[in-house]
Design goal:
By secondary structure, the protein is an alpha+beta fold. 25% of the residues lie in helices and 30% in strands. A hairpin with a 7-residue loop joins strand 8 and strand 9.
Length: 166
């Protein structure tokens, strides 16, 4: 994740025009016992969904494309069986409804109790559509993943789901 952020930061700084980018970069190991490694550049921190508990993980670092001397911290998060790592863009939390924003509290409430990445993405898509009456004013992206796990002696598999609504 740190190499990916540094490389993208250099590319953005090398452009003739101003280009800023917020991103969460994370790496999942094929070994289920290994923690996810993550780095956050000017983005909402990813969320760990564990049943009804939804908690932010990772430290937010500087946005990409703004600073030549930028650096980011590499965080680690144990994502166990039945847990999910969910990343969303600010288009989700800043989506406008009847006089208010979707917000982080609503995001956490929608994810609480979600059983799978596909369920998390589906719930958020439905909640955003209902909240905005189908009229998003920014792009909204969601990525949800679970750790690798073994199924009946087969090779470990992780599960993921994502969407982009604009």
């Amino acid at each position: 994740p740190l190499v990916a952020l540094a490389t993208l930061n250099s590319a953005l700084l090398g452009r003739s025009d101003s280009a800023l980018c917020s991103v969460v970069a994370f790496a999942l190991s094929s070994a289920a016992a290994q923690p996810a490694r993550l780095a956050v550049a000017g983005h909402l921190p990813p969320l760990l969904v564990d049943g009804e508990a939804v908690t932010e993980i990772g430290e937010v670092g500087p946005v990409l494309g703004a600073f030549h001397d930028a650096s980011w911290d590499l965080g680690r998060a144990a994502v166990g069986a039945g847990q999910q790592l969910v990343a969303v863009t600010d288009g989700v939390t800043e989506a406008g409804g009847a006089g208010e924003r979707f917000g982080e509290a609503r995001l956490h409430a929608e994810l609480a109790g979600s059983a799978s990445p596909a369920n998390s993405v589906s719930k958020l898509e439905g909640a955003l559509d209902l909240f905005t009456a189908g009229a998003l004013d920014d792009d909204a992206a969601v990525l949800a993943v679970t750790p690798a796990r073994t199924r009946g002696g087969a090779k470990p598999k992780s599960e993921s789901a994502g969407c982009l609504v604009s």
